[in-house]
Every structure is written in structure tokens, then in C-alpha cells.
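Sequence dictates fold. Below is an illustrative record:

_____
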Amino acid sequence: MQATASTDETETTANHHYVTSVVAATCKKTGYTQHKCTHCGDTYKTDEVRPLGHDFVIIRETVFIKILKCTRCGDFVEEKQIPVFPSIDPRPPTVLEDDGSAEATDCTNAKRVLKST
């Protein structure tokens, strides 16, 4: 989708009569000023402008996906998201003794402690 805005500017050189038009930059394409001879069709470009790039906004988001839409051109992008779940601590449990002191246990000892309580 390129927007072209013709101007009234004309340029006359030896045997050429150029009409100038501006092609606006888009998200993906370069913008430029185009000069075209009305007599022979010769063209050349000046004043190039880099592509603007997308300007995305979030229009929908869930735990697993995010849908974005460009405010300039209307393109959609779907980003997959990997949810972050709390990790489980693989260390053996710590058992509190009656006096409030902590005793680190291994799995075998933890089973014994849990069965006896």
C-alpha cells in the first residue's frame, strides 16, 4: 500500500519536462520523490526515506498467545507465549524439631518423619 501524492512541481532540463511526485514510505517499503519526464517517460528517484517499520499494539492477549495489530498498515502478528509456572524446589524438605530448630532431611528420613506425625 503506497501512497502517492503528485505535486505541481515540474522541472525542465534539456529535452525533458519532469513532473515530481512523492511516494510515501510505508511500514515495509522505502519512500522517495519520483521525477518523470512527460515527453519520454524517463524517471529517476531522489530523497529516499527508509521504511517506517510497524507500530504494533496489543489487541488480544491470553496466557498462551498475544495478537498484535499495526496501527499504520493493519498487519496482524500472533506471538506465542510460554507461560511461566512457579518451579518446584527439588531439595528435600526441612523438618522443624519440637525445639524450633531445623533439620535438613533426605527423602528416606522425610518419609519416616511424615509417617510418625
In short: Helices lie at 107-116. The CA atoms of residues 69 and 76 lie 5 Å apart.
